[in-house]
């Protein structure tokens, strides 16, 4: 359920009042969860405040949350999970066929089809779930906000930043670099099918919500309602944890490396004043973790 500007403002105000009670302490709270989709990141080495909003790329509610939060905070910077080229495409309303999700579709569509018959016969039961998930991964990850595709909420962030005169910061890894690293990771997995089988065989069962999402995608249904339910911090955490355990090489490229990069970009380019950072829900936990680690290492 989307929070209205008034309710978001009430939460922020209560948090701010509460934080003053700890003013005598040497350290401030670096990370404060102020709603199921929004975190407040602060630092011991600077006075900036980063409002980190986790979104889903096909969520109209996310679009509205982005605008509401920017209007409320009136930030100096608006940070988006886009690289400069994809931001330019989005600003010019370039065809979505050029976006990251479609490129990932091309890369993923042949998964499982080239395995030899003797290997297929030896596949563990988990493969019955894993192969469809892999083949539909680009669509699911795009809709959950894990690919940084050209979603409506990113465009809303760019437009609202321009309207209030905020500086836009493009914080994602360059798309071509991500694609190169993903190809290498997938080539490494394909080169050793038995190792892939072992990796998947050791994976836990997928979260119920992820299995349901896969079923909806395979049946051609509309996953919007389920996505609204699972875009919260805790649900996204469960899903990313599963991907990290089931397919570590892909997780490293699509999630970990980009989380590290985005946290560093926030530190480097948004080090003063108020910031609204708009990222896919699957990146929130990793950015929070990297943000805290960077502060401790300063």
UniProtKB/TrEMBL annotation:
Coiled coil residues, start to end:
none
- Identify the stretch annotated as signal peptide in this record: none
Could you tell me the superkingdom of the organism this chain comes from? Eukaryota
Please report a single Pfam family linked to this protein: TraB_PrgY_gumN
| The protein's name | TraB domain-containing protein
Report the source organism: Skeletonema marinoi
